[in-house]
Amino acid sequence: MAYDVVVIGSGPGGYVCAIKAAQLGLKVAVVEKNATFGGTCLNIGCIPSKALLHASEMLAEAQHSFDALGVEVGTPKMNLKKMMAHKDATVAANVNGVSFLFKKNKIDSFQGTGKVLGAGKVGVTGVDGKTQEIETKNIVIATGSDVAGIPGVDVAFDEKVIISSTGGLSLEKVPAHLVVVGGGVIGLELGSVWARLGAKVTVVEYLDTILGGMDGDVAKQFQRMLAKQGFEFKLGSKVTGVAKAKKGATVTFEPVKGGAAETIEADVVLVATGRRPYTDGLGLKEAGVEMDERGRIKTDGHLRTNVAGIYAIGDVVVGPMLAHKAEDEGVAVAEIIAGQAGHVNYDVIPGVVYTSPEVASVGKTEEELKKAGIAYKAGKFPFTANGRARAMLHTDGFVKVLADKDSDKVLGVHIVGFGAGEMIHEAAVLMEFGGSSEDLGRTCHAHPTMSEAVKEAALATFFKPIHM
Ligand code: FAD
Fold it and tell me: What is the pTM of this model?
């Protein structure tokens, strides 16, 4: 049977693309090499990490906040096995949900490794080694990404002592000392999980800041908050070795600016230095599909590769490696294939760090605006001046709104604080519609909510906030 679309990979890019294409009346198949659908995000990424982040955050709340709220529960205790069972059940519910949606939308699935045999032809090698060919009018490559190591350093992952994020989601006991190589989102999220469960966490980061690329104000404040939670930071440090020791492992690093090397001991080392696009065994070279210097598949503004009928989306192409970016590209490409006008607005893709407190951001940072020479106004409002934040004992953090100096159009919003990951979406919607900070500051916000801080930060860009 010939298909309209064969999608290789069932992560948030691939599965969303398949469902949307089927909803648009196309005949769709998905090829997935894993035993379950959902890709990195549902199996070993967004979903399991958030289950552990939530559970460990509840423990920390019970330990540190309940008493002040007048809630007495005795001494809260961690049950790691139960926490992991909750994580596994959450993953199962999500991956089974994708299976259900495939059936509901009459999407065929092939379990095996997909290979592009040329435009219109996909080969599938099953787990039993048997191969088959599928004919299709269009191919969508959505093969995602894989763990990247440390450039120039030999890292022997065993997922017990020297671990990637995947091992970091399944440790059997809390390490006394966890060294995290990489102060990006994944390292800080997983570091937070294990810190709350009792580990001492040291983060070794190459840059002079954590969360490289985030607004500098936010990153600085966030680092102070994590330091208060017990995190230790070795910034501006280049890791030159990660080695297994008799007990645990060692991490050796030296100052980026030059100086003496230092070696620290760890029970577990989490290497969270980023991810690489995954195209292994896809046959792209033979099929003539062009890649860039970083191994990503090259696409045009319509997610088309240089070979007619072959598209690529998600982590395997340029852009932020985020599930919702992959999903939006999945929808866009399905619409394009169906003859509609699919489109992704790359200027308004929110990014969230699901720590406690959360960090969320959309649009340009202050540093980016300065670099681009754009005249802007900044308005800031702290949660210490927000009634709801006080009532919930969540007064850490602030909202920052950046707007164009002349037109008042909102160019970026950055939040560090409880619930930032939910609040950021009012800014995203506003920006999608080209709204101004006055639009935001004059929009009635329910009281008392954390979101009032967003309104007040907007007011601060063109006049004065009321509560400060
Ligand atoms: P993937 O999800 O990587 O899926 C690709 C799929 O393709 C996989 O199932 C793979 O098995 C399959 N595949 C690969 N090659 C073949 C082949 N040849 N044949 C058949 N199948 C193949 N993003 C967020 O937005 N929010 C978060 O909170 C978040 N948390 C994260 C936490 C962790 C620990 C990690 C590791 C990542 C996290 N991410 C998060 C990133 C997010 O997981 C990715 O951006 C997202 O999964 C990318 O989706 P994708 O569809 O491009 O690829």
Answer: 0.97
pLDDT in tens, 278-322: 999 999 999 999 999 999 999 999 999 999 999 999 999 999 999
The model's pLDDT over 342-388, given as tens digits with 9 standing for 90+, comes to: 999 999 999 999 999 999 999 999 999 999 999 999 999 999 999 99
CA–centroid distance, residue 362 to ligand 1 (Å): 21
Any ligand 1 atom below 6 A from CB of 165: yes
Sign of the alpha-carbon torsion through 72, 74, 75, 77: negative
| ipTM of model | 0.99
pLDDT of 441 above 90: yes
Percent of the chain with pLDDT over 70: 100
447 catalytic? Reply is yes
Determine contact, residues 263/244, Cβ cutoff 8 Å: no
Q: Are 435 and 410 in contact (CB under 8 A)?
A: yes
For a pocket test of ligand 1, which of 17, 34, 40, 194 has the largest count of ligand atoms closer than 8 A to its C-beta? Answer: 40
Ligand 1 centroid to Cα of residue 142, in Å, is 9
